[in-house]
TrEMBL record:
<protein>
    <submittedName>
        <fullName>Catechol 2,3-dioxygenase</fullName>
    </submittedName>
</protein>
<keyword id="KW-0223">Dioxygenase</keyword>
<dbReference type="GO" id="GO:0051213">
    <property type="term" value="F:dioxygenase activity"/>
</dbReference>
<feature type="domain" description="VOC">
    <location>
        <begin position="169"/>
        <end position="283"/>
    </location>
</feature>
<dbReference type="InterPro" id="IPR004360">
    <property type="entry name" value="Glyas_Fos-R_dOase_dom"/>
</dbReference>
<feature type="domain" description="VOC">
    <location>
        <begin position="10"/>
        <end position="127"/>
    </location>
</feature>
<keyword id="KW-0560">Oxidoreductase</keyword>
<dbReference type="InterPro" id="IPR037523">
    <property type="entry name" value="VOC_core"/>
</dbReference>
<dbReference type="InterPro" id="IPR029068">
    <property type="entry name" value="Glyas_Bleomycin-R_OHBP_Dase"/>
</dbReference>
<dbReference type="Pfam" id="PF00903">
    <property type="entry name" value="Glyoxalase"/>
</dbReference>
Length: 283
């Protein structure tokens, strides 16, 4: 099953604030392997296939350094089409000697973790076949085990690195929030996701259509973590692709019923979770 196609609601684009646009463009091109679709003095849009925007980065005029212990982005995740693509990416990272923050075998997927020059977290991963995922009591088994990097590197084609493959998409987003109860209500009762996994009482993973997760929330920056200043480096917003106008209207009604913030902005519907993470609802 394709978990990132209509009628499922999924994350389609991430929008970040950065401190130095030229430095960030260079990083996302040369280290991550995205292609620049558009670039101005303070903004750039990046893609894997040269058509669809996956990441938008912007340098606010009065931007300040990323603030610690706040709500916002933990990481955004780029999903690669094949396991060999992840091996190729790992080989590339080792060759350019860019520091990785870690890697993990989650059983549902294999992942590598790193940060951009501003400290925005990034996961690069590939999924295992959903037929291999283990479900217990309607929750998917998703631990963090040691990644077999040697096997990953042995199963590559050995071709010269040429960037992320065309089929790369945004697989999910993982957010810092100030608490879980109200934020969970927003994503479940408001946006229509369901909880598919939990890490004790400090992180939840949610999806539609029984994916292992489209959105994850954690309280690792502390209960009551504040929102960062609006001009801080970090997450500006992320976009959720909605299957139809009818479904989006239903979601808007659900959001209003729980008292969530909703407004129209430049033809888009904007909402925000109780921690202030902004979301664009697009069709």
């Amino acid at each position: 099953m394709n978990f990132h196609r209509k009628p499922i609601t999924f994350v389609s684009q991430v929008n970040l604030k950065v401190k130095n646009i030229k430095r960030s463009v260079k990083f996302y091109k040369e280290i991550i392997g995205l292609k620049v679709l558009e670039e101005t003095e303070r903004k750039a849009q990046l893609s894997a296939d040269g058509k669809k925007v996956l990441l938008s980065i912007e340098q606010p005029s009065d931007v300040i350094t990323k603030q610690n212990r706040t709500v916002g982005l933990f990481h955004f995740a780029l999903l690669l089409p094949n396991r060999s693509d992840l091996g190729e990416f790992l080989k590339h990272i080792l060759q350019v000697e860019y520091p990785l923050q870690g890697g993990a075998d989650h059983l549902v997927s294999e992942a590598l973790y790193l940060s951009d020059p501003d400290g925005n977290g990034i996961e690069i991963y590939c999924d295992r076949n959903p037929s291999e995922w283990v479900w217990k009591r309607n929750e998917v088994v998703m631990p963090s085990e040691e990644l077999d990097v040697n096997d990953l590197l042995e199963n590559i084609e050995g071709k010269e690195w040429s960037g992320l493959p065309v089929g790369t998409i945004v697989g999910h987003i993982h957010l810092h929030v100030s608490e879980l109860k109200k934020n969970q209500e927003f994503y479940i009762k408001g946006l229509g996701f369901e909880v598919v996994s939990r890490y004790d009482n400090h992180a939840i993973f949610m999806s539609e259509g029984k994916y292992h997760h489209h959105v994850a929330l954690n309280i690792w920056n502390g209960i009551g973590a504040p929102q960062p200043p609006i001009n801080s480096v970090g997450l500006e917003s992320f976009s959720l692709m909605i299957a139809s106008e009818e479904k989006r209207n239903k979601i808007v009604t659900q959001l209003k019923n729980i008292g969530a913030f909703v407004k129209e902005e430049h033809g888009s519907i904007i909402t925000a979770d109780p921690s202030g993470n902004r979301i664009r609802l697009i069709i």
